[in-house]
Each structure stands twice: as C-alpha cells, then as structure tokens.
Design brief:
With 211 residues, this protein is an alpha/beta fold. It has a single domain, classed as Aromatic compound dioxygenase (Protocatechuate 3,4-Dioxygenase, subunit A, Sandwich). The strands form 2 sheets. Strands 1, 4, 5, 7, 8 and 9 form a 6-stranded mixed sheet that branches. Strands 2, 3, 6, 10, 11 and 12 form a 6-stranded mixed sheet that branches.
C-alpha cells in the first residue's frame, strides 16, 4: 500500500511540472479558419510573460522598431488584460533564420520571435528590427501575429506591414474586413534612433466563427 501511495504522490508531482498550456490544452479553441503554425503561441514554455518583449535580433545592425498597441475586448472600449501575443518575422535578408537548436515551430519560424501578455490596461510593446522582404520579393516585409485570449480562443491576425513598401498591394493597404479591426499597416515615426509604430486590436473583430 505504501508503494501505491508513493506512486500517486510522485505522479501528482510530475503532473505539476507540465507547462500550464499543456495541462489545459483541451480548453483551447482555434477560431477563424485554418492556421498553419498558430500552435506556436503555446511554445513560450515556463517563462513569465510581461507586456514588453525584446526580440533576439534587436541588438544587431538594422532599422530598429518599437511597436505598441492596446487590445480591447469585443466591445471595442474595454481594455483586455492577459491576452498573449505571439510575433515572428524574417531577418534582414528575408530569411526565417535559425540557430540550429530550435524546437517545435521555431524550426520554421526561426529564432526571431517573441511572446507578450497585455497588462491591465490592455497595452503591449515589442522591440525588434524591421524585417527584410523574401529573397524572391513575393511579398512586402511583414511581421506575423497570433492572438491567444484568456478564454482559450486563438487565431491569426493580418500581418504588420510598413507604409511606403513598394511591394504593398491593395490587399495590405485597404483590406476589406481586417481581422482585429485594423489592417496592421504601420506609419512609422522616427524617435531618436528608433522607428515607432502603433496598432490597436479589437478581440474577435472580423474573425470568422468567433462567437
């Protein structure tokens, strides 16, 4: 009997070491249609997330960015706290660069990625470098973004793009129904040695099958 009790105690202890996102995986729901790689939003592991993150490329040469925003609940007015934002993008050569030790979706998305959690005012900020365009110039430079709400819904939003990019099309400039209520097209303003852009987001806005 003692051995059985010890086994139960050990099992409970091991279970407590599992990442929180793994333990409650059944509570999560992908909405808004198929999304290749959206599961990467769960790959922050045991790190404690804050409303500010600096991506790993920020201290190398390149045009520095500071991107901010406020996330609102579906009413478009109430700040949404504890929303996780996942972003990733290419390096200056337009490549999703890896270091060789990546796991999960990091093998595809590369090492230039990060996770942020909004504060009580719904605000978030991340620092990074402006990404390069793909070598074949098939798309304008962009930063991918995925959202995970506290209620378990997760989905992709339209990427961040940059005004003045010659590869922009009407789809990026004036999307018909932008997810999150904004196109993600940033008008960057120079503040000392950093370019600053802002994009606010409304949870579920124009996201199919959200309700």
């Amino acid at each position: 009997m003692d051995n059985v009790i010890k086994f139960i105690i050990l099992s409970v202890a091991l279970t407590s070491l599992v990442n929180p996102q793994d333990k409650n995986e059944g509570n999560y729901k992908l909405v808004g249609g198929p999304c290749e790689g959206c599961e990467a939003i769960f790959e922050f592991g045991n790190r404690i997330l804050s409303n500010v993150d600096t991506l790993p490329d920020f201290n190398i040469d390149g045009p520095r960015l500071k991107i901010t925003g406020t996330i609102y609940k579906p009413d478009g007015k109430t700040p949404a706290k504890d929303v996780i934002v996942y972003i990733y993008h290419t390096n200056q050569d337009g490549i999703y660069e890896t270091k060789g030790d990546e796991t999960g979706w990091g093998k595809r998305h590369g090492y230039i990625r990060g996770w942020i959690k909004t504060d009580k005012d719904g605000k978030f900020t991340f620092y990074t470098l402006k990404p390069g365009t793909y070598p074949n110039r098939s798309e304008p430079a962009h930063i991918h973004i995925t959202i995970l709400e506290p209620n378990g819904k997760y989905y992709w939003l339209g990427s961040y793009h940059f005004e003045g990019d010659p590869l922009l099309t009407e789809k990026e400039i004036n999307p018909e129904l932008p997810r999150g209520g904004s196109s993600g097209l940033l008008s960057l303003q120079k503040e000392e040695d950093i370019w600053v852009g802002k994009r606010d987001i409304i949870l579920g806005k124009n996201v199919p099958e959200y309700d």
